[in-house]
Amino acid sequence: MVLGSVITPAEASDFRSLVLNHKVSVVDVFNLVSHKSDSELLRELRHFSDQSKTRSFHIIHICTEMAPLVHRGSVASYVTGISRALQRKGHLVEVILPKYACLDLDQVQGLREVKGEAYSYFNGQLHGNKIWNGVVYGIGVTLIEPLNYSSFFNREMIYGYPDDFERFSYFCRASLDYIVKCGKQPDVLHLHNWETAIVGPLFWDIFFNKGLGGTRILLTCHDFNSQGIEQPNKLALCGLDPSNLHQHDRLQDNTNTQFVNILKGGVVYSNRVVIMSSIHPKYTIVRNLSHELEPTLNVHRDKLVVAPYGFEKSTWDPSRDYFLPENFNAENMNGKAVCKVALLQQLGLSEHSSSILVGCNFSEGSDIDVKKMKDIVLNGKQNDVQIILMNTSEKQVLNQALESLQEELKDDDNIKFVGAYDEALSHLLFAGSDIILCRSFLDPSDETPLKALSYGAAPIAVGLDAHKNWVIPFDRNLMNHDQEATKYSKIINNTFGNMSFGLAIDEIRSNPSKWKRRIMEAMSHDLSWDGECYEVHLAAYSAIKNM
């Protein structure tokens, strides 16, 4: 409405505050208002009753991925997951993305091009952009489409081009120009990895005094493998001063000092840095996994917090899962036995209440040690264990190995192969199994261990990297840093982290009451995006707003 000169930036700010402080969530009313014209919506806003609620935040993500629009790694599911969790708690969340040619726009409700001028600075002059607005899972989404530099995002891949810095610095500058033009005054600008870390220097050097005095910066690092190492003079493309920033305490790379490090700049210029790692504590990440950024992270150590990944609780919750014949939770596990019987019946396996049931879903991207998998199946066969293998992977090597294994075990009544994905059966697999096989506990894109624990099953890792980097060389300082580990990490370390398949079978049979207590304890923790991950982010937002 601001870009189209329907209302002023000041009016827009007032309306955002009104919506933000109302007791009804945006996601709850979107379908009722999405079809209305601007004038109709303005009429309703002007009569909107202001009913107070707890302190809420207005957060804008500036990012390069968001599920299900564009998904190339853990960033996409994280952005959507934490945004939905925040909105469920009453916060106002927006996401700004480049308008890639490969976006799945069918996932956007109410997508429309904004009629109005949207210019941004790049390479010495102003350039026009098309702005698109829509909603994904109740989250407001803005897509920025460059006109003069249309080739930046009209490509097959999202990342991996020689001009990635130019592409994403254009997008970052355009995002900030758009925010200021619309009169938005978010509490937090939330950045992700090196691709949007340049927003930090841009914000403090150029945009802080353009109506964003109350805004703070939070950067999320999903890993430190890629940091955006560039020639200093390229900073001028988006309006920054290379000589001012190419300094050791700012963006100068710690190793190759003739270059600038964009991720380092994001750390330096952010008020808080959230490191996403379900398993490793902060000390281990800084000391062993930061790839030459250790000196910078140590200087800014007080900014750093670690948060675990999660999963979508609205669709994966055994106490409310409508795919299950009977729901259950940590306090009442009776429904799990019902789910187990239903799963066995559906797949034609014999029903033995005392038998151990093992489930495995080879989804797209699975990287399974085929030899280890075969050994597990044969081990299970010798120990009278029932095993269900659901294969939806398109990996030829894995498919051939499983087909060979299926042929070898075709006469075994305790093993069932499922060759096509079934959503309802997948939920029942988690609910009915005693053990769920997973790739590893280290892969942020694999939600299998989290879902297994939440559904009362023990996750056992069988991937090629199941224990890669799991054991960090002993350091006595680690003993003093356990409090920096996530709750999920402590659960895994104290239960199933290094447990083999054979040991799990032995423990279930030799001490079933102890095993049940262990499972119930794990189930009592909320491992979804709404649990510890949300709590860490809320604390970070609150801390920087009080600065």
UniProtKB/TrEMBL annotation:
<dbReference type="GO" id="GO:0019252">
    <property type="term" value="P:starch biosynthetic process"/>
</dbReference>
<comment type="pathway">
    <text>Glycan biosynthesis; starch biosynthesis.</text>
</comment>
<keyword id="KW-0328">Glycosyltransferase</keyword>
<dbReference type="GO" id="GO:0009011">
    <property type="term" value="F:alpha-1,4-glucan glucosyltransferase (ADP-glucose donor) activity"/>
</dbReference>
<keyword id="KW-0750">Starch biosynthesis</keyword>
<dbReference type="InterPro" id="IPR013534">
    <property type="entry name" value="Starch_synth_cat_dom"/>
</dbReference>
<protein>
    <recommendedName>
        <fullName>starch synthase</fullName>
        <ecNumber>2.4.1.21</ecNumber>
    </recommendedName>
</protein>
<keyword id="KW-0808">Transferase</keyword>
<feature type="domain" description="Starch synthase catalytic">
    <location>
        <begin position="58"/>
        <end position="278"/>
    </location>
</feature>
<dbReference type="Pfam" id="PF08323">
    <property type="entry name" value="Glyco_transf_5"/>
</dbReference>
